[in-house]
């Protein structure tokens, strides 16, 4: 008796081989999937623009910047007014007065430059002081999320493009923003 005498046997053997291959493929895929790392990312610029505490920090820094720039404008206006006065009188005064005018305009220029430099340094120091605890809260939240949901890796994207694009299901930004705003209103 040959298998050619029973065509259904050939058909049955082919189906069994196909079924075994299918089950082996499914088993391999499940095993691979179970060991696949769990990955996500957050858009850090969005995180900083939507986290309430970070928004307050930005508002504070913007206010400080506006304040020192207003004061710098007053100094600049005074310098400009003196330059106009100096321009009209300079050629009609004696050499000593010209030297005094040059010294005065140089002093006003230095005063403005020192004020701008000191003000920018103050703003940067204040920004660092505000940002440090905010970043700690964000990092703590990220660690908690990672442990709770068993992430192997969470990336942070920046405007400089460390992550060019990612699937919506990997984007954890909204979840992290919600948790931060709920925990730190």
N-to-C CA distance: 82 Å
Give the fraction of residues assigned to helices. Answer: over 70%
Largest sheet: 2 strands, parallel
Principal-axis shape equals elongated
Cα gyration radius (Å):
35 Å
| Helical segment count | 5
Description:
The protein has 185 residues and is mainly alpha-helical. It has two domains: 1-36; 37-183, no CATH class. The protein is built from five helices and two strands, in the order αβαααβα. It has helices spanning 7-35, 44-50, 52-89, 95-148, 173-183, and strands at residues 39-43, 153-157. It has a two-stranded parallel ribbon with strand order 1-2. Helix 2 (44-50) packs parallel to helix 5 (173-183) and helix 3 packs antiparallel against helix 4. The model has no long low-confidence stretch (mean pLDDT 82).
Task: Give the topology, please.
Elements: H1 7-35, E1 39-43, H2 44-50, H3 52-89, H4 95-148, E2 153-157, H5 173-183
Parallel strand pairs: 1-2
Helix pairs in contact: 2-5, 3-4
